[in-house]
Write a structure and sequence with these properties.
It contains seven helices and 14 strands. With about 280 residues, the protein is of the alpha+beta class. The protein has two domains: about 150 residues, Pathogenesis-related Protein p14a (3-Layer(aba) Sandwich); about 80 residues, Immunoglobulin-like. β10 and β11 form a beta hairpin. InterPro entries: CAP_dom (IPR014044), CAP_sf (IPR035940). This is CAP domain-containing protein.
Length: about 280
């Protein structure tokens, strides 16, 4: 499964200006946020509770196959190098997103790109990586016998044509890996992303007052054009050319998906950033 760089309509992108200023802060979780890891019914709903439970589950679980994850990373880059592609970087936040999904699949005995609540790889990336600006995302998922070797894991992934396209996607720059074992099976998740930039400071999970957005775009042919914040249904909440957002743009019941808009010649593209909510 691959989600490609999206174009965005310039007039809408420039329609609304944000006001006031404040610097972004490191992600902190409220003291009263639910933190117990109870995967029987999946991760908690709501951004803060979701991230809190994911972090708790990753901290207490030891059912990950770290050696096989490293071998799969090496096999992927060897495959890309042989095909004339650039090697991928391994990004810790993508590892956490991949492991979170692998752990959930293992705990509840299913396989899929979305969890049973409908949250996909891009949601996990945007919830757990508080700085990413991604132009494209993809993922490979596989379930194998627990005695499968790293070579057999890579063979199973690369045998699928869609997975093969992800492995050799020229634009992907970063990857994350998660392999969890349960009930005699390995649940394998490989995330792949085009990281076109990062926010200078991690965006807090909860926006309080005004927050400054300072993007750093990697490719010098992109020019930052503005930003927008949308709800889960894609409805525009706020945006503008001044790189500042205010919590008034987010209803207390909503979650906001940050996109940074960049221009290349006459076209404007969307780089997907972190998800935020309001305190």
């Amino acid at each position: 499964m691959t989600v490609m760089l999206q174009k965005y309509d310039v007039p809408r992108a420039l329609a609304l200006l944000a006001v006031a200023a404040s610097s972004g802060a490191l992600m902190t979780l409220p003291a009263d946020a639910q933190s117990a890891c109870t995967l029987d019914n999946g991760y908690a709903g709501g951004l803060v509770s979701y991230v809190t439970e994911v972090e708790s589950c990753l901290a207490v679980n030891r059912n990950f196959e770290a050696g096989a994850e490293s071998d799969l990373f090496a096999a992927t880059n060897s495959h890309r190098t042989t095909a004339g592609m650039s090697a991928l970087n391994r990004r810790a936040t993508l590892d956490r997103a991949a492991r979170a999904h692998a752990l959930d699949m293992a705990a509840r005995g299913y396989a899929g790109h979305d969890d049973l609540e409908g949250r996909g790889h891009t949601y996990r990336m945007r919830a757990l990586d508080r700085q990413v600006l991604a132009g494209a995302t993809g993922a490979n998922v596989a379930v194998l016998s627990a005695n499968a070797t790293p070579a057999e894991i890579f063979e199973a992934i690369s045998a699928d044509s869609a997975n093969q396209r992800n492995l050799l996607h020229e634009g992907f720059t970063d990857t994350g890996l998660g392999i969890a074992e349960a009930d005699g099976r390995l649940y394998v998740v490989q995330m792949l992303t085009t990281v076109d930039g990062e926010l200078e400071s991690p965006l807090p999970l909860q926006v309080v007052g005004a927050t400054t957005i300072t993007p750093r775009v990697k490719q010098n042919y992109f020019r930052t054009a503005g930003w927008k914040l949308s709800d889960a249904a894609g409805n525009r909440l706020a945006g503008g050319t001044m790189m500042r957002m205010h919590d008034a743009a987010i209803d207390s019941r909503d979650t906001g998906y940050l996109d940074v808009l960049v221009q290349l010649d006459a076209d404007t593209y969307v780089l997907k950033g972190p998800i935020v909510t309001r305190q």
